[in-house]
Amino acid sequence: MTPRERYVLLKTIELYMETGEPVGSRTLQKKFSMDISSATIRNVMSDLEDKSYLYQPHTSAGRLPTDEGIKYYINYLLFSIGEIETGIGVQIVDYIRNFKKETFDEIFNAVLKFLTRSTGYVSLGMKCAIDALVIKEISMIKVSMSKVLIVITCEPEYIIHQIFPLKVEPSILLKISRELTSKFRGKTLSSVKKELIGEINRVQKEFLELSFSLKSHIIKMVDNVNDINISGTSNIFNVLEEDFNRVQKIINVLEEKKTLLETFEKLIDTADKITVVLGTDTEIEALEPFSIVTAKYSVKSKDAGLVGILGPKRMEYSRIIPVVENVSKALSRMLSQEKYR
User: Fold this and answer.
1) Cα–Cα distance between 312 and 302 in angstroms, integer?
2) CA-to-CA distance for 33 and 19, rounded, in angstroms?
3) Which of 45, 50, 266, 279 is the most exposed place for a label (fewest CB within 10 A)?
4) Is the pTM above the cut of 0.85?
5) Domain co-membership, 33 together with 145
6) Overall domain count for the chain
7) Is the dihedral of CA 282, 284, 288, 291 positive or negative?
8) What is the pLDDT of residues 100-154, one digit of tens each?
9) What pLDDT, in 10s, does the model give residues 11-67?
10) What is the number of other CB atoms lying within 10 angstroms of the CB of residue 202?
11) Same domain, yes or no, for 232 and 288?
């Protein structure tokens, strides 16, 4: 792409983001006081259309950006914006302290609500604890005749617990707890899932039914550690307005979470620190009119999840990207401090 083509493309998309309307060459020339004629701009736009960055909805209209054009614009912003301190980090920390948010979930949910208010869009947060947490102890406690509480204590300070229907003697539970703790202490949750089946079989060869039941319960607990929190779902209506059929589809995706979680799990494995994904690239039909802007957050320098927003493709990326980036940094700082973990 020539410098002139890049300039015309970026200004075309910038104006489209502002108005939502097809952009004509004369309008573009006047808006930005360009030192080239509208005829020249029109020719450049035609070249950009040939390169699949712009398209014309109909012959007499101006041009609109394609998804490829929007991606080019976003990548340019990611490269050129750099780190911008918006003051959001200080605001979040003050909010957390003033309202005495102390647990991980309290801090996490408060940050997402703050992100929703700051952007006006749906905020999303993924907890990827399965790869970041290290096992300290596995305990199984009988709480009634037919129920057992399974507790997995991890470091940094994090506890996974759930009650399951299970009939078993307390002495057997104690034996299994000791064996599993000895075997898995110091290992990550992800490695536990891989090794768990063989270990429980070894410990409990004589209790095949019990072994199968325990495997199912613990694996389910580990699988459910990764989760997505959502704030501001009602803001979907601001994007889709009266398209109620599409509104229902996206709300179903947000409520069901599984498909969205799979998309975020791919992002945490492959994404850069800050990433923008167009809905058309997610293979989720309901997300096609949207973009997702995400940033990784960490706990003691280890990637622990993602926070971000779900908004329209035609959003003010130059404002939203620094907001999401600074929110993720503030969350990382808070979660890495001893008193917040």
Assistant:
1) 31
2) 18
3) 50
4) no
5) no
6) 3
7) negative
8) 777 777 888 888 998 998 899 999 998 765 566 788 888 888 888 888 888 888 8
9) 999 999 999 899 999 999 999 999 999 999 999 999 999 999 999 988 778 999 999
10) 11
11) yes
